[in-house]
Amino acid sequence: MEYRIGDILTGKVTGVQPYGAFVMLDEHTQGLVHISECQHGYVKDTSDIFNVGQRVEVVILDIDEYTQKISLSLRALQAPPRLGKKRRRKHYWTSRKFHTGFAPIAAHLDGWVAEALEHLDGETTHK
């Protein structure tokens, strides 16, 4: 049978490995569903998703033109997961209520300058 990229087929799982599952498409053709193409999100163990003999619907992602190996995907047929509600993160270094900006620093600046000058004057008298 002639297969093309994008074809949606039903196959039978013939083997489960830590890196994916082999799916028999017809009597002479077999493809691999890589662990990254099993489902959206993290997959710890492919044996949790696949069982030998299980019928699965897959889509052809790629066909290597030299080796004729077929890459399959279950994830491409699934709807993408909905993103959760966007949370607003509190920024602790500013206050949006008061809009003070650099005012607290400006209020202390004169005191800091005077303290620094006193320190410098003390060093010059000791020499």
TrEMBL record:
It comes from the Bacteria. GO terms for biological process: translation. Residues 6-75 form the S1 motif domain. GO terms for cellular component: cytoplasm. One of its GO terms (molecular function) is structural constituent of ribosome. This is S1 RNA binding domain protein.
